[in-house]
Amino acid sequence: MLFFSSIKNSFKKLTNTPMSKMLTYVTLFFALVFSVYGGKKLIMMWYMSHYQPPPVTISATKAKGNVWQTYITTIGTLTAIHGVDLSANVAGIVKEIRFNSGQIVKKGDVIILLDMDIEQATLKSSQAKLELAKIDYAREKKLFDRHVASQATLDTRFAELLEAQGNVESIQAQIQQKTITAPFDGRLGIRQMDLGQYLPPGAPIVTLQSMNPLYVLLNIPEKYLSHLYINQVIDVVVDIGNDKIVKGKITAINSKVDHATRNVLVQAMIPNDKYELYPGMFASTKVWFRDKKNTVVVPQTAISYSLSGDYVFVVKDESKSKKQHELHVYRQYVTVAEQRGTQASITSGIQPDDLVVISGQLKLQNGTSVIIDNSVEL
Predict the structure, then answer these.
(1) In this structure, which topology does domain 87-207 adopt according to CATH?
(2) List of residues 6+ apart from 265 with CB closer than 8 A
(3) Less packed terminus of the chain by CB within 10 Å, N or C?
(4) How remote is the C-alpha of 249 from its chain's centroid?
(5) 56-68+294-372 domain in CATH 2.60.120.20?
């Protein structure tokens, strides 16, 4: 007892000194500071572990099951059904030009006239001889009917009549050769001669191309030959500033495959009512097959692309009760087969009626809580 009593007295003496009191206060102060700091940190850790971020607003739609018709894409060239470089069969001087460069003409319209003054004069002389031959033959026929003229004389007059008719027709043919006309409807090019110019036989005058309809020449790989048939539908896109799509049909398939390219030449026909398309233009085409395939279709905006693969965010309802809806999204990797317009075909990864996110993906991670609001543009 005396031992413990002495220790107690010694402790009282130490604590009653000014230095010991200061140390006690300092110790209590730091203990209080660390207690407050540690408590605050524990509270923050507890809060963060139980923190639920607010749901992210997204737009979503259901994936749809659909049937897509298969096709192949290829390039083609537009060509005129009829196209010629007009020229004269006979020599002559250009007397009249009856067209303007780029003009639309109809079949039979006169393009140019060559000088035909000599032929016109010869025609008048031949026509006069023809009239005389007709009169002589008629007179000889009357005499023959009255048994005054012989059969030989009548035959001579008839031969003279035929000869005169032949001479007139020959001169008319020469005049016709000096009248150059359009052999079909179409558009003229830029004229390649001038008024008063001497044209030798075969000299080019102007090109003429039929404009409506037009042919499209396609080269299609031989492996698709079994899918090709007459009247098969094609889509033709020509870059004329509006990416116009023109529907056409296959009209002919070549009878052989090019051994160098292993392609078969296919001819299709498209309308060109407004003459917007020109022969020689480049065309991108789709050739539609009879084959059809079942696929899952989603908007292209639903698909996100990354080095690890293409994926979509699928919305799942993880509600614990009917009154409280809890929607979360999960990344689902998919296989994109093809894209048409704003839609994409998915062959694996999701099923029809799966709810997929179409906007707001940048704010999402696996398990993110979401709210669907399709009226909001994100």
Answers:
(1) OB fold (Dihydrolipoamide Acetyltransferase, E2P) (2.40.50)
(2) 217, 218, 219, 253, 254, 258
(3) N
(4) 15
(5) no
Angle between helices 2-15 and 18-49 (to 10 degrees): 80
Where does 153-203 show beta strands of DSSP type E?
179-181, 186-188, 198-199
Distance between CA atoms of residues 108 and 184, nearest Å: 7
Domain ranges within the chain, ordered by starting residue = 2-49, 56-68+294-372, 72-81+209-291, 87-207
CATH of 72-81+209-291 among 2.40.30.170, 2.40.50.140, 2.160.10.10, 3.30.2130.10: 2.40.30.170
The dihedral through the CA atoms of 220, 225, 227, 228 has a sign that is positive
Q: What is the pTM of this model?
A: 0.64
Q: How far apart are CA 301 and CA 11, in angstroms?
A: 79
CA distance 362 to 354: 20
Each residue's pLDDT expressed in tens, for the chain with a length of 378 residues: 554 455 455 545 545 566 666 666 666 666 666 666 666 666 666 655 555 678 888 889 999 988 888 888 899 999 999 999 999 888 889 999 999 999 999 999 999 999 887 878 888 888 888 888 888 888 878 887 877 778 887 788 888 888 888 888 888 888 888 889 999 999 999 999 899 899 899 899 999 999 999 999 999 999 999 999 999 999 999 887 777 789 999 999 999 999 999 999 999 999 999 898 999 999 999 998 888 888 899 999 999 998 889 999 999 987 766 656 688 889 999 999 888 888 999 988 899 999 999 988 888 888 888 888 887 654
